[in-house]
Write a structure and sequence with these properties.
80 residues; 76% helix; 0% strand
């Protein structure tokens, strides 16, 4: 196994683990975003640019989800 293949295996495995554990902590959502960046880098280095582009989209989606989870929720307006 060459270094690029090992890097790709690590990136995809990290993404899988973080995706499976997203419900446990918002840090796993962030980890999935980071792993998606690594997968995009792997895709571009390997020459599979469509894979790299899709992983960039997944990175954006994951970061938006993470930001939505960590952002403070607006207070409910007083009723009465």
């Amino acid at each position: 196994m060459d270094a690029l293949t090992a890097f790709g295996l690590f990136a995809v495995s990290a993404g899988l683990v973080c995706y499976a554990l997203e419900e446990r902590s918002h840090w796993y959502i962030f980890g999935f975003a980071a792993a998606s960046v690594l997968c995009a880098i792997y895709g571009f280095l390997q020459g599979a640019w469509p894979f790299g582009l899709i992983e960039i989209v997944w990175t954006i989606v994951a970061l938006k989800r993470w930001w939505g989870v960590i952002r403070p929720k607006p207070a409910a307006p007083p009723t009465g």
